[in-house]
Structures are given as C-alpha cells and as structure tokens.
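Assess this:
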Amino acid sequence: MKIAVYLSAVPAKSKNEFKRNLLAKFALGARVAGDDVLIIDDVNRVAAADIAVLQGWIGMKQAPHLQQRQRVIEQQKSQNKHTLVIDSNLFGFLDPNDRDKYLRYSLDGIFPTTGYYFDRNIDPSRWQEICARYQFQEHPWRQGTNILICLQRDGGWSMDGLPVIDWLHATIQSIVAVTDRPIVIRAHPGSLKVVPEIRRRWPGIPVSDLADIRQDLDRAWCAVTYNSSPAVASILWGVPAFVTDPDSRRSQAWGYANTDLVGVERPQLPDRQAFYHRLAQCHFATDQLETGDAWRFMRARLP
C-alpha cells in the first residue's frame, strides 16, 4: 500500500512542530508495518497514493497549507482513494495538561456523517487501555442545577459559518421558554473575543472563568452545544448533553445526546457502553504511531 504523508499541509509556524513530528512518527510506523511511505514537504505538490495522511481538515481560510489539503482530498476522491485525517482528542478534557496523549483518526471526513472511524470489529480493550492511561472510571448519570451552554469557535466551519452570538441568542430563547433553571455560558478558548459582547448583551448570565470544563460539568444539569466535543465530554462525565445542529448526526455525540431543547427538563439517559467503545476505536496515543501498532489496527479495518 502506498501512503503519502503531508508535512507541508501543517501551518508553517514553530508552534506546530508537534504536528510535523506526529506525521513523521506516523510515517515511520507505516514503514515498520510494511507499507511504502512518501513524505511530502512541498506545499505545491500532490502525489498519487492509496492513503493520503493529513493533520487537520480543510477550513474557511485560504492559506497555502489549507489549499493543499483541499487539493489532496479532491484528488483522493477522484481516484477512489482514501484520506486519513488526524484530529483533536475527544478525551483531552480528562487530562488538560497532556491533551496530545491521544488523537482521533478518521477516514475521508471529520463528521460521523462523512467520515469512517474504524468502528468495525469493536475491540473492548481499546476502551480499557484509555481508561487505564487516564485513570478514568465511568461516571454514573448525575445532574446539578444549571444549564451549561458551551460555545464553539466563532464563525467556524463546523457551524457552517453561523455567528456564535446568533446561535447563543436563539439557544437562550429556546431554553428560557421551557425552564427557569440558571444558565452558565462557557466560551470557546479560541474565541474569547466574544466574551465582552456576551456580557454586554446578557449581563444577568454568568460566563464561566473556569479553565477545566469538568468543574463546570460538576455543577450542570445538562450541557448544550451546537455539535462540538463538549457534548462528548458531558456524556463521559455523566451529564446529559443537547446538540442543536439541525443535522445532529454530525456530532460525535450523536445517538447519545438529546436534540430538542423542549425536553431540557426530561433529558434522555441512554446506556453508554457502545458509545465508549466506538470512540476508543479511533483514538491512538502518539507512542503507538512509530511502532506501527496504530496503523496496523486501522489498516485491518479499512473499508
């Protein structure tokens, strides 16, 4: 199998050296596993390959590295080949000081509606391994008092460009129409610029200043987001989650998060074992890359 690993599709900034090293480790592991690996460090080059490996997906900006990602993805699709995407760690909230311990891997997309997450032939030991590494024990469903609204990056592609303030306004209206529970807003760490406007428009609603989302979840009746990872964190922490994306299947919490705020006082509390196991199938630690173990696991489950 021929694998092309795109170092040049990472932003050319020193702070992204980890991402380049991550890709280099993946390339080494794929070679150890017996595959033919081509490392590409030219932002203008796209190579023919069975698997193209990218750190990150396309975005709304037009930077050269994002344009290269777009060209790579389009070529892979046109040739009936695959793109392997390395994305953020959905378990990262369990250890905020080591968010790169695990990362998430998917094929041909980053939403459950578009990507494949190697969730065939479930191996329960994957979840057991992650619990052991994070020293995590399953939290029973539990509920506090307030409704925690978790914002996403303002105008990000995952919200289809919807301004986060507009979404927040509609969400608050939907919540206060059905409950008088107190609301707490948690801003996205990458879009703190919206906080002054939030405080101006909703002076009676506190904005959390807690760095650790687990502290907010400990007090929450439920968590509400558009479609992003706080819904996963909430469910893992034992707090019911709501996602408001009209296509709720795009959320990694789909099937386990509630989707209608009318039911905020009566959230569904499903059994979560299958949820844990599915998430664990697509997460690998950086030390599992260069040995080839991560790629062997994924390669055995290619569609």
